[in-house]
Amino acid sequence: MKRISGERAVNMVIDVLLVLxxxxxxxxxWYVLIASVSSPMEIAAGRVxxxxxxxxxxxxxxxxxxPQIWMGYKNSILYTxxxxxxxxxxxxxxxxAMAQRTLPGRxxxxxxxxxxxxxxGGMIPKFLIVNAMGMLNSPLAFIIPGCxxxxxxxxxxxxxxxxxxxSLLDAARVxxxxxxxxxxxxxxxxxxxxxxIIALFSITTHWNAYLGAQLYLYDPKLFTLQQVINNILSRTxxxxxxxxxxxxxxxxxxxxxxxxxxxxxxACIPLVIAYPFVQRYFVKGVMVGAVKG
Amino acid sequence: MxxxxxxxxxxxxxxxxxKNITKAIWRHRELYLFMLPAIIxxxxxxxxxxxxxxxxxxxxxxGVPILQNKFVGLRHFNRFFSSMWFGxxxxxxxxxxxxxxxxxxxxxxxxxxxxxxxxxTKLKKTAQNFSYLPHLLSVVIVVNIVRxxxxxxxxxxxxxxxxxxxxxxxxxxxxxxxxxxFVLSGIWxxxxxxxxxxxxxxxxxxxxxEDAARIDGAGKLKCIWHIQIPCILxxxxxxxxxxxxxxFVIGADKMxxxxxxxxxxxxxxIDTYVYKTGIGGSQYGFASAVxxxxxxxxxxxxxxTNRIAKRLTDVSxx
Lengths: 293, 318
What we know:
Chain A is an all-alpha fold. Chain A has 2 domains: 55 residues; 233 residues, MetI-like fold. The two termini of chain A are 44 Å apart. By secondary structure, chain B is mostly helical. Chain B has 2 domains: 53 residues, no CATH class; 238 residues, Orthogonal Bundle (MetI-like fold). In chain B, 70% of the residues lie in helices and 1% in strands. In chain B, helix 12 crosses helix 16. The two termini of chain B are 21 Å apart. Chains A and B meet through helix 1, helix 4, helix 5, helix 6 and helix 10 of A and helix 1, helix 2, helix 3, helix 6 and helix 7 of B.
């Protein structure tokens, strides 16, 4: 009897902790959301905690008048789709080739790839190379240099190695199929699950990238969404005229703050829409990687 | 395969072997073509920058061919080692890395154990789905959520502090808040995602073993301590080793975003310093030297942990 109640206590503690985990995970985002649609006065008074108060959509109305946000969206969508297509086009065939055990020099090539995971020349020489190739301030600089992710390449290689039986390839070869034909007709369709996972990794990496964009893109017309929102968010009221009254200043500060909340939310929208569809793949992706470890 | 016979091979055999290899390479020509784009990209953008090794010893001028720059020996290194930023950046890099990898590593494990042992399936699912949502957010969003919540005046934390009659805290004005903000936001963003891998390992723990222990009167806590943790120990060790190899890799982006003029004493790490002196200040030679200094330490750590891992566990990276 006593042991059962002890067990129940443990379960209760676990449940309570997990409720806390769920709240801590989601609350910062939730707070930003409710703050973005509340009246700034209510926020400042600490009355906005769980639900929006004094519904106010002014911040969003203002955001719709900011062309740079939509420009950022457009750029990010363009760059990300370009980058994903290039990533897959470069890495999937390469992963397939690396998986073929009969390939002469396979070990050497493999080592060559892995070395780059652990040693790099650093940010500056890479920047100078991109510069020397005339790619500075071009979306290409954002897309091309990072198109081979060795970790993802290894995932691909392992998948091709483990899920496509050698006998299948041998049979196809005996029948006179070229590697290219085998790859296109048999290997590629079999690899759709891993390709989906790699595409997902690649989408999130490029969509979320900040430093790469900041390094290579200077022209505001080329800015990614991340750059745009960071510029809006780090804007302070310091650029205001000095001759305004305290009340006016407070009002403006409150308004800019409200807008900042709204910007974060606008930037999160694609993610929130995509999340239910992709989260399953994320778990799968981690598991695929774990098999290798 | 034929290596053991190498000494006794006749000229004829050698010629044959060479011919066979050429033949094999020719037979696989399509596959090399498959790899070519990736190899070219790596050669240019990963191996190319390794000439930074040379740049670190040069007075680099843009437009001058790399080997015609004036060599200045160890001047850049000496300048870095004797500057005040050497102590600051190394200290911050080391302390933040230690906090991230040593103090925080049990968090995902703990979370995974909680999730695995939760009997309320609905709660379990909700908590798990919520916990890895932040992982999808970009670093810009995460840092800006931190900025908004911790703002000196209008941030939620300070609003609440004032409501309770406490003084507000200037999180971005006082250097001592850099580490907590950096590390806690890191946990918030990644713990749920990092827990997935432990959950996978836990799901492989034999149920029979646990049932048997149950019948023998072991409670839940005992099962966790004596069965679940020992069963996933290999996973824990491997992840620990992998993390060690990445020990001092922090990345410039998040820190650059968290940095303000006021908290620079704690927020300048080697990565941000390289970015500023190199990209901001155009001191390419000097910045490369600083970057190389960090890369060599990292490489040393990878090799070291790999050797330790090989000896202890048979698991190794290469």
